[in-house]
Amino acid sequence: MSDYLLTSVHNHIGYITLDRPKALNSLSLDMVRGITAALMAWRDDPQIRAVVLQSSSEKALCAGGDIRFFYDVGAASPRGDSALLEDFFTEEYALNHLIHFYPKPYIALMNGVVMGGGMGIAQAGPQSCVRIVTERTKMAMPEVNIGLFPDVGGGYFLSRTPGQCGSYLGLSGEVIGAADALYAGLADVFIPSAELPALMQLLHTSDSTDLRAQIHQFAAAYRDQADPAGSQLAQQRDLIDTVFSADSVSNVMQALREEGSDFAQKTANTMAKRSPLMMCVTLEQLRRSASMTVSECLRMERDMVRHCFKHGEVLEGVRALVVDKDNTPAWSPASLDAVSRDQVLSFFAQVWPDYAHPLRYLQELAS
Predict the structure, then answer these.
(1) Which residue intervals define the domain Enoyl-CoA hydratase/isomerase in the entry (predicted)?
(2) From the candidates 80, 112, 116, 117, which is the catalytic residue?
(3) I need a labelling partner for 229 at 20 to 30 A (CA). Which of 66, 85, 114, 164 fits?
(4) Tens digit of pLDDT for each residue in 185-213?
(5) C-beta separation of 185 from 133 below 8 A
(6) 65 carries an active-site annotation
(7) Is 163 a catalytic residue?
(8) How many domains does the chain have?
(9) What is the CATH number of the domain that holds 11?
């Protein structure tokens, strides 16, 4: 078990507590393995009726994968095939699959920062999960900011948001709060952070046979405090659907510039700082993912991440953001105009034959 992970059982409910506050609970390989081990042990244990994923800190549930680890290991392996990187992404994506199809109620307290890999361990299957957001929630899939793409099943859950909201979130990497998360279908209920102790007390004493329904009932009193209908995504939905339905990122940017509203200009300025190549790859990923299963998306993303580290865009992004902190990544190519269709398609080239794919055993299960 990882030093950054605590597990306990109360009232036949298993609790997984991420405990790496100085790094905003960024996931290490040991943490991925610890979460997986706990979920596997509890999955078929008749004494465990539900699982709660939470943090020891109010600042974050999980800010994502340990990108400094990615840089250190990836920089030492120019082919992008470091054994440690291979293990991390294979096991992380397998964990995402395990969570998506978990057969017991899976309750994710998305209090504070929930980004990237944090989304991967919070977006469980729709029939089993209860994804709780608070006024502290800061949610994003910001991978294009570091030269990556929205992985951990991001292709699956972003492509199933209303209209083109997932394309907007994936290409811009923008941070959203509780109301937007609820509107996008990336959260289920809002509970003020001050009421989380009362929720925990309820879980510690409840003998309900339907915890999901009980949590929804508990949250009903706070429904008006995070109204999805008043969210920015709802207010900008027509613009988002029109602009982000374009068939290329260049056309998206042109439409944003021409639209002229404050929201459109802010979005265009944000996207201008992202990796041109990885925005194009992300758009292709989301278009493909819309008709794929969870397992197919994760297998595709596993191929894509190998190509990312071999290309080196992600290493440059992490260097600029975390290592040197100059915030001036030298993206390659440097502009959208220089990104070719062949470059984008190369990220979807098969890395392993089907029989040897590291995630070949993933199957579609009943959620």
Answers:
(1) 13-348
(2) 117
(3) 114
(4) 999 999 999 999 999 999 999 999 899 99
(5) no
(6) yes
(7) no
(8) 1
(9) 3.90.226.10
